[in-house]
Design brief:
Elements: H1 3-9, E1 10-15, E2 24-28, E3 37-44, E4 47-61, E5 64-71, H2 82-86
Parallel strand pairs: 1-5
Antiparallel strand pairs: 1-2, 3-4, 4-5
Length: about 90
């Protein structure tokens, strides 16, 4: 796949807040568009949870599309460590 084909079909997700702050991943464009809302499963302190993120700023850098995603706390699983749950 050439670089042009690669950048036309993919974009880079940047998690800017919430439990996945500072991480990123590549995703496929659907009909040339980014996902407005994405779900991510991650283990935080050994507890697997589903976190929802909403698209924000879109920018181009080095010929690639970057999209900032913001944490949607009300729709996501609560973020608690095993220690917090044991003390309840």
């Amino acid at each position: 796949m050439s670089d042009a084909e690669h950048t036309d079909t993919e974009y880079i997700v940047e998690y800017v807040d919430g439990p996945l702050t500072g991480t990123s991943e590549r995703r496929l464009l659907i009909d040339g568009e980014v996902d407005e809302r994405i779900g991510a499963v991650a283990a935080i302190d050994g507890l697997e949870s589903l976190f929802w993120y909403v698209a924000g700023e879109v920018r181009e850098l080095g010929g690639e599309k970057y999209v900032s995603y913001h944490f949607d706390s009300p729709d996501s699983d609560p973020v608690e460590s095993d220690e917090e749950q044991e003390s309840l």
